[in-house]
Amino acid sequence: MSDTTHNEFDLVITGGGITGLAAAYLAAREGKKVALVEKSDTFGGLLNTFEIGGNRLEYFYHHFFTHDAELNWLIRELGLTDKLVFKKTSMGVFRNNAIYDFNTPADLLRFKPISWLDKFKFGLSSVYMGKFARWEQYEHVSAASWLRKWAGKTTAASLWFPLLKIKFGPYAEQVPLAWMIGRLRQRMGSRDSGDERLGYLDGSLDTLLQRILQELQQKGVVLMNKTEVARMQYDGATVHALELTDGRLLKAAQFLFTIPSTYFAQLMEPLLPDYAAATRQIKYFGAICLVLEMKKPLSEVYWLNIAENNFPFGGIIEHTNLVGPEEYQGSHIAYLSRYFAHEEPIAGMNEEQLKELMLPRLREIYPHFDPEDIIRVYCFRTNTAATVCDLHFSKKVLPCQTPLQNVYIANMSHIYPDERSVNNSIRIAAEALNKMGIDATCVPYNRSLSGKIGF
């Protein structure tokens, strides 16, 4: 923990994930005196990594898109351009006990679960959503119902709805088409003549995390990990200090919270109970990733979507089909990914139960898979992996400026209708600072749909 003897700041940021880190960097870049507070032992949030095969790897899979202007800007700022590599990747779909390549129009034609008429509808509807549709017009429309009508019933039944079900669980029918538009726009922007190129940092996101922490220290940002905010001290509609659980005070002119809405609501409850209740309307999914370190690869596919009902995981991301096994002393690495609603039974399973649930099902996908090829299995989970985006979700997203004059919030809910990513987290950090009167216009725009609501 950094020294906090002089505890008066221009800005105190609570939450040390990428949004908080980016906001701290941008504010310090403008000469502001900043403190960054993080409850856990380490900064980084979903950027955190562990050691595997002599290298570092994220707890939860990450990659970048070629059009991630905000991320590319930050990487240049931090002098890491030589560490960023883009590679051609492949996608597949597992359906009806078969793996289908899903990268080109020719692959679509070979996808047997979809009728010929619906293949045509799938192509047109996908292009419409990814290139032409305005998400604002489709917040009240269920993605599932729209896709059944316009992408075809066989497309919806054999592809789209199983994917919505495994990601959104009991909320699958309530996901707005606006979210799907944001998702497809992101993916299509990374394709060139059907080929998708995705990026990764040499040394993992730990390379970015360590460099930005170094830059923050050099710019005088006070970094406070293992530090928890107990309450706000306020006078009328103005907060003048945060009281920490150890009794210390952090005084500042402005306060920015980048923590999940559920935790922010707890801090706001004593001050503004009605506002806290509105904040709690935003719910979160958890996520589980089993990371398999193996002697052999599962396949040549980087990202395999599991479009089957009642499967315990929704995707297999074979990381070493993006970053070669030579970077991990020859080990092959794959993620088994599963989102969960907190009321689902899987939310309460321990690591051994998750292994027993997931690992045997791999043989249904890869008959050649031999459990003896597994060197080790790692298990990671978070309770706040993504927001539950239901119909009219934008009405739930809180304004960046709260009813308290100098208190602001920017978190995962502000990324909607886009998908959570490092790039989009940087976008909302910049939007928050601009709203606070701290110039962050140096951060460029490109395709991100984040930061459109609440700012």
Automatic annotation (TrEMBL):
InterPro entries referenced in this protein's UniProt entry, alphabetically: Amino_oxidase (IPR002937), FAD/NAD-bd_sf (IPR036188), Zeta_carotene_desat/Oxidored (IPR050464)
Protein name, as recorded: NAD(P)/FAD-dependent oxidoreductase
PANTHER family, per the entry: AMINE OXIDASE, PROTOPORPHYRINOGEN OXIDASE
Domain Amine oxidase residues, every copy: 18-377
SUPFAM superfamilies attached to this UniProt entry: FAD/NAD(P)-binding domain
Pfam family, one: Amino_oxidase
